[in-house]
Design a protein that fits this description.
Blueprint (H helix, E strand, L loop, with lengths): L25 H16 L4 E3 L9 E4 L7 E12 L2 E5 L9 E5 L2 E7 L5 E7 H13 L5 H4 L2 E2 L2
Antiparallel strand pairs: 1-2, 2-3, 3-6, 4-5, 5-8, 6-7
This protein binds zinc ion.
Zinc ion (ZN) binds next to helix 2.
Length: 150
């Protein structure tokens, strides 16, 4: 595994729309492993491929230690409720903002074996799904924050 460089705000990569993964290859699996290592080294709870300079629809999330969720071509298929709370981003270091998100979110994606899997999360996990999937469309939380805290 290798730690990758995290792209920071100001880099145009973060504003681009990512392409779907058509075929899961050994390179895809290496990227997933490297993204998990990079996320953990940065003490993050989520990382999207464009944050390491790769314009593909791939996300890793670890809200609960040891429970890594790997999402390939993810889509939000259901959401409900609302939560308002603090959010940050590894690509926007040293800042935080208040963002309103759904309280419950269900995501459908491929896992590393190419199987379709649905994941349902609430609270922080629901927030992570929304935040990380936004990255795949070039969106950052600072675009939707009602207030920045710094
Ligand atoms: Zn982010």
């Amino acid at each position: 595994m290798a730690k990758l460089k995290i792209v920071k705000i100001g880099d145009s990569t973060l504003r681009k729309c990512c392409r779907p993964v058509d075929k899961i290859t050994p390179r895809t699996l290496t990227l997933l492993d490297d993204m998990v290592e990079t996320m953990r080294a940065a003490n993050g709870c989520g990382l999207a491929a464009p944050q390491v300079g790769i314009l593909r629809r791939i996300v890793v999330i670890e809200v609960k230690e040891g429970e890594v969720i790997e999402l390939i071509n993810p889509k939000i298929i259901a959401y409900s409720g609302e939560q308002t709370g603090e959010e940050g981003c590894l690509s926007v270091p040293g800042r935080a903002g208040i963002v309103t998100r759904p309280m419950h979110v269900t995501v459908r994606a491929l896992n590393r074996h190419g199987e379709t899997v649905d994941y349902t999360g609430s609270e922080l996990l629901a927030r992570a799904f929304c935040h990380e999937l936004d990255h795949l469309d070039g969106k950052l939380y600072i675009d939707v924050a009602s207030e920045m805290l710094d």
